[in-house]
């Protein structure tokens, strides 16, 4: 006989019947693992996030600020980074230009025509193949030419020093015109000469306009230091102020020398010069500020005159002129004391003292001691050496001055400009 269990199994196989649930459970393993490959999740950025997306730009963590509400704000240093928030650029025909990233530009991907703004020097110039200018100086120039321009030693130390001085003089000014009065309480110390030298040194280097105004109410001689081209004076500027509509109108009232320094003369009639007051100076100064970057003012010896008050109120820096004698140095120092006592202490601390070493008895005085005294009170001191052309008291020709005189005039100009608020170019 066949057991019942055996018959049931045979019947299951032979008859094609489904096994029972208990039999199926008994045949399965204790554990079972099934692997299913799902597609990677795709994140869709919301509209508000897409609107401020930055294409190919990195963000400095230092400019990210988290507000109290939890909102994150990013300060953009360049408006061009937020291109998605502005209208797409257009070419000259008004056709929209597709946006593209720096990565696309560098790797040749073209998703639209480039604008002219993309042709920057950083992108186009190969710094590895940059050509250096022909050097200045006898020996560097000889080597440069002898090697057929293959060896460039660069400028000589003397030329580099000159260019560094030029760079200090030619700084970019921030804001409007800068006013620099030149003053002292004693006459005959070379105040007008220093004003002329300072103006010529500035005008010979800078490309903007420089003017020197003779505001001496006692018949100044500033206009006699250059070749006079007009008989107009500050009085003519005041009388014609309403009709001056541009620099062309103003330029007919000034004289210009070979360095491009403009000079506005004072009145030659003593009666008229005494009438030149604070209001008149402000009219002249306002017009000069429209057309000039630097306004030098040759002040008179009357330190309590109303013109002096108007001059000091506009001053960005001052130049105090001292001679090389005992009384000249003492009066220059007393000028600083008066300025400090009348609320101009900041101007004194930023002041420059120009010591004119061409006055009488200079060779008997210890100029080093005079410089040491002023060094304790002002920002800098410059010594103007003796020059026969300056001592003559006539018109000054910049190119005819002794090289040492031109050098110290340029030093004075550089030091004055060092004290000006500036902006990098």
Automatic annotation (TrEMBL):
| Gene Ontology MF term list | ATP binding; ATP hydrolysis activity
User: What organism, scientifically named, is this protein from?
Assistant: Microcella daejeonensis
Q: Which InterPro entries match?
A: AAA_dom, P-loop_NTPase, ParA/MinD_ATPase
User: What taxonomic ancestry is recorded?
Assistant: Bacteria, Bacillati, Actinomycetota, Actinomycetes, Micrococcales
Region of interest: Disordered: 1-25
Q: What is this protein called?
A: MinD/ParA family protein
Gene3D superfamilies documented for this protein: P-loop containing nucleotide triphosphate hydrolases
Q: Name one GO biological process term.
A: negative regulation of cell division
The residues covered by the AAA domain are: 180-322
């Amino acid at each position: 006989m066949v057991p019942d269990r055996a018959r049931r199994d045979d019947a299951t196989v032979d008859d094609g019947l489904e096994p029972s649930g208990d039999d199926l459970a008994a045949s399965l393993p204790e554990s079972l693992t099934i692997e299913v490959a799902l597609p990677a999740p795709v994140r869709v950025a919301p509209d508000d996030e897409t609107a401020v997306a930055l294409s190919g730009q990195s963000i400095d963590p230092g400019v990210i600020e988290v507000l109290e509400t939890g909102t994150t704000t990013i300060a953009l240093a360049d408006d061009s980074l937020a291109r998605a928030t502005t209208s797409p650029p257009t070419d000259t025909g008004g056709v929209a230009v597709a946006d593209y990233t720096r990565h696309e530009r560098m790797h040749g991907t073209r998703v639209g025509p480039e604008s002219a703004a993309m042709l920057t020097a950083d992108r186009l110039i190969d710094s590895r193949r940059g050509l250096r200018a022909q050097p200045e100086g006898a020996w560097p120039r000889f080597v440069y030419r002898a090697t057929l321009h293959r060896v460039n030693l660069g400028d000589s130390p003397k030329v580099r020093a000159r260019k560094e001085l030029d760079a200090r003089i030619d700084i970019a000014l921030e804001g409007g015109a800068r006013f620099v009065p030149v003053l002292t309480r004693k006459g005959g110390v070379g105040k007008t000469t220093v004003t002329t030298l300072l103006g010529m040194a500035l005008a010979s280097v800078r490309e903007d306009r420089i003017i020197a105004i003779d505001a001496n109410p006692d018949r100044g001689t500033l206009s006699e230091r250059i070749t006079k081209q007009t008989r107009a004076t500050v009085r003519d500027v005041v009388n014609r102020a309403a009709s001056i509509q541009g620099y062309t109108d103003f330029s007919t009232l000034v004289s210009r020398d070979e360095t491009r320094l403009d000079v506005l003369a004072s009145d030659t009639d003593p009666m008229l010069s005494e009438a030149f007051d604070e209001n008149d100076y402000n009219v002249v100064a306002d017009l000069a500020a429209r057309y000039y970057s630097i306004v030098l003012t040759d002040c008179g010896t009357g330190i309590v005159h109303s013109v002096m008050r108007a001059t000091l109120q506009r001053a960005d820096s001052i130049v105090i002129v001292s001679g090389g004698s005992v009384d000249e140095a003492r009066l220059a120092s007393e000028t600083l004391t008066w300025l400090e006592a009348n609320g101009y202490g900041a101007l004194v601390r930023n002041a420059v003292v120009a010591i004119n070493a061409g006055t009488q008895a200079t060779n008997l005085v210890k100029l080093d001691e005079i410089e040491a005294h002023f060094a304790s009170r002002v920002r800098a001191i410059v010594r103007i050496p003796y020059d026969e052309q300056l001592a003559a008291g006539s018109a000054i020709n910049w190119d005819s001055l002794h090289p040492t005189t031109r050098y110290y005039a340029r030093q004075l100009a550089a030091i004055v400009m060092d004290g000006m608020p500036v902006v990098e170019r």
